[in-house]
Each structure stands twice: as structure tokens, then as C-alpha cells.
Write a structure and sequence with these properties.
The N and C termini lie far apart (73 Å). The radius of gyration is 36 Å and the shape is elongated. It is α+β, with helices and mostly antiparallel strands and 361 residues long. The protein contains 13 helices and four strands. The mean pLDDT is 86. Helix content is 66%, strand content 8%. It has a four-stranded antiparallel sheet, with helices on both faces.
């Protein structure tokens, strides 16, 4: 049973799959309508040729709607579920069926009401009320045509009761449609809130709250992934350790608020020095770690020079105009297949310390 259903449903898009499921469920009600109309043929209330014509029309319309849903072209419509179109078709087929029957319209009408109630799932109160009015009009036109052309098949008292019963569909269905529409709206709002909460939790988990770049654990994890990839693809990997020189002096002389501003602006300047595939994170205190996949020693050196120039070329926000924040940038390379990430970071740190001792390096 699962294989045919799996073939009928689009498995790559859950929302599209749900739309097709709802359509197939409505199609089973159509099949009940066709079978029920067959009983009317046996009772002499419907001509066989008219039953065959109506059946062909129902099948062709449903096949066309299914093809539209299955192809994905329904995504071009304002309502990808095509609920309005399907309800419009239901009303027209209902009107045609009511016209063809010579009696007993109430039984078939019940099944069409079931089909119309599928509109509650997608339409709002105003739309469903308009649908109910259109259904009443279609039924009224059909029985009026029967009265004029086949008076013997028309019972005014019964048809009036049918019209009154059908007329209750508009306000009652509109109420339920409005209620369901409100539930959908609240559910959508809660889904948005939940997604925002998940993003905030993710940010708290992987981002440094002060600078907005990756925190220590996140940049270490990224370095570990890139180290495995470099080993697998036989590509170089470079790490830059950026240390703000004498940063504690800023906190001591200008205050921690200015120090926080310097850290934030440093992170933003570092963003402009790297590629999209590179990683940037606050390693600790005033240290930042840059991970450069597929970067050899020459490329790492160029990035290091660019980083130093970006940080030292102009004053930081909150600092005096004549104050230039200096930094040291150490370069560490993945030297051997058995190197771990801590050895690479240690090479970058050693290089940074050597540059502090010998700025000419």
C-alpha cells in the first residue's frame, strides 16, 4: 500500500506533499459521489449517459488538478493549495449534477457539502462565506432550470428545504473557517517565534556576544573540520593568531567600555580581511583566530600583512585620534598529516611572540 501512495506524493517537499494528500482525500469523496450517482441510475433518477458524462468530467477535472499539483506549477499561484479553484469547481459540478437528477438531490447534496467543507482548511471567513453564497446560487440556478424544463422532477417544498439547508453553510462554515484561519495564524506566529528562539540559542552557543564573531569553541570546531578536510584533499591550511598589543593599557587608561568598542571594531576590520570560506573567532581576551583553508605560506603572509594594516592604519572608535592600536599577527601552518589543531595554533602563537620581540619579522 505504501508504494503506490509514495509514487503519488512528492517526497522532496513536505508542504507540497501535504497539499497533494488533501487533494487525494477530496478525490475519494468525488469517487463516492460517482458511486452514489450510479445508484441513482439504477433507481431511474439519472440517465446512464448523463452519469457517464458527469463521471468523465469529474475524472478529467481531478486529473488536471492533480497534474498541476504534482508538477509544482501550483507554486505560481497566490494559494498553492488551489483551494479556491477546487471549491469553484465543486460548486459548478454540484450545480450540473443537481440539474441532471430527477429526484433525491438531498443525498448527493450531502456529499458535495463534505467537499465544500474542505475549504475550511485554507479559506478565511470572508472567502468561505463568498463560497457558500456561490454554492447557493449554483444550486438555485440548477433547480430553477429543472423547474422550467422538467416540472415533474421538481418538488418546490423539498427544494426550498435544500436551499435553506445549503444556505446555512455560508455563516456556519464561515465561522469555522475564521476559527481555523485564526489557529493557522497563531500557529504560524508561534513557529516564527520558535525559529527566532532557536536562532538566538544558536547564536549564544557559537557566537561571542561582544564581537559577534565565532566564540572559542566554535572557531576551534571549525578549525578541526578544516584540518580534516585539508588532510583528506591534500590541501594547505593556515592559521593566524591576532593579538592586540598592550590591550590591557586601553582598559586601564580609557575604561572597559572603550576596550569593548576596540574589540568589536577589531572583529569588524578582521571580517574585511578574509574570504567567505575562512573562519574568524575570538580565541580569548584580546586574541582572535583566523582559519584560512587552502592557503599556503605566501597567501597566509599576505593576509597577515593586510590584517596588521587594517588594524593599525587608523584609530579605533573611542580612542584618541593620535592613538594607534598595534597588533601582532602570528602565522601557523599545517606541516604534517599527523599535526593536530593545537600544534598549528601553537606555531601561530610562537610566531606572534617572536614578532613582538622582533617587530622587523
Amino acid at each position: 500500500m505504501n508504494l503506490p501512495l509514495g509514487a503519488l506524493l512528492p517526497g522532496e517537499d513536505p508542504r507540497q506533499s501535504l497539499r497533494v494528500r488533501r487533494f487525494l482525500l477530496a478525490s475519494t469523496v468525488y469517487m463516492l459521489v460517482i458511486a452514489f450517482m450510479g445508484l441513482y441510475v439504477r433507481q431511474g433518477l439519472l440517465d446512464f449517459h448523463e452519469w457517464r458524462l458527469t463521471t468523465l468530467l469529474i475524472v478529467l477535472v481531478n486529473l488536471a488538478l492533480y497534474a498541476l499539483l504534482r508538477s509544482g506549477r501550483n507554486e505560481r499561484f497566490a494559494d498553492p493549495s488551489l483551494t479556491g479553484i477546487q471549491m469553484f469547481v465543486v460548486c459548478l459540478i454540484m450545480g450540473l449534477t443537481m440539474y441532471l437528477l430527477d429526484g433525491g438531490r438531498g443525498g448527493i447534496l450531502l456529499l458535495f457539502l463534505v467537499l465544500l467543507m474542505f475549504g475550511v482548511l485554507r479559506l478565511n471567513a470572508r472567502q468561505f462565506t463568498a463560497l457558500g453564497v456561490f454554492a447557493v446560487v449554483c444550486y438555485g440556478v440548477a433547480v430553477t432550470a429543472v423547474w422550467q424544463q422538467r416540472p415533474a422532477a421538481f418538488d418546490a417544498q423539498v427544494e426550498l428545504l435544500h436551499l435553506v439547508a445549503l444556505g446555512t453553510l455560508a455563516p456556519c462554515g464561515g465561522f469555522f473557517a475564521g476559527y481555523v484561519s485564526g489557529l493557522r495564524r497563531r500557529l504560524r506566529e508561534r513557529q516564527i517565534d520558535l525559529q527566532r528562539a532557536r536562532e538566538e540559542v544558536h547564536d549564544l552557543k557559537v557566537l561571542d556576544p561582544l564581537t559577534g564573531v565565532s566564540n572559542r569553541s566554535a572557531i576551534i570546531a571549525f578549525l578541526g573540520q578544516e584540518r580534516e578536510r585539508a588532510d583528506r584533499l591534500y590541501q594547505p591550511l593556515a592559521v593566524l593568531l591576532v593579538d592586540l598589543y598592550r590591550f590591557k593599557r586601553i582598559n586601564r587608561e580609557f575604561g572597559h567600555r572603550v576596550g569593548d568598542q576596540v574589540l568589536y571594531e577589531t572583529a569588524q576590520r578582521l571580517r574585511g580581511c578574509i574570504r567567505d570560506i575562512d573562519g574568524l573567532g575570538r580565541y580569548g581576551g584580546e586574541e582572535f583566530l583566523l582559519v584560512l583553508p587552502d592557503a599556503d605560506v605566501d597567501e597566509a603572509g599576505r593576509v597577515a600583512a593586510r590584517v596588521a594594516d587594517r588594524i593599525e592604519s587608523r584609530p579605533m572608535a573611542g580612542l584618541p585620534a593620535n592613538y594607534r592600536q598595534r597588533c601582532t599577527v602570528g602565522v601557523g601552518l599545517l606541516a604534517a598529516a599527523d599535526d593536530d589543531i593545537w600544534q598549528v595554533i601553537e606555531r601561530a602563537r610562537s610566531d606572534a611572540e617572536a614578532r613582538q620581540t622582533d617587530p622587523s619579522r
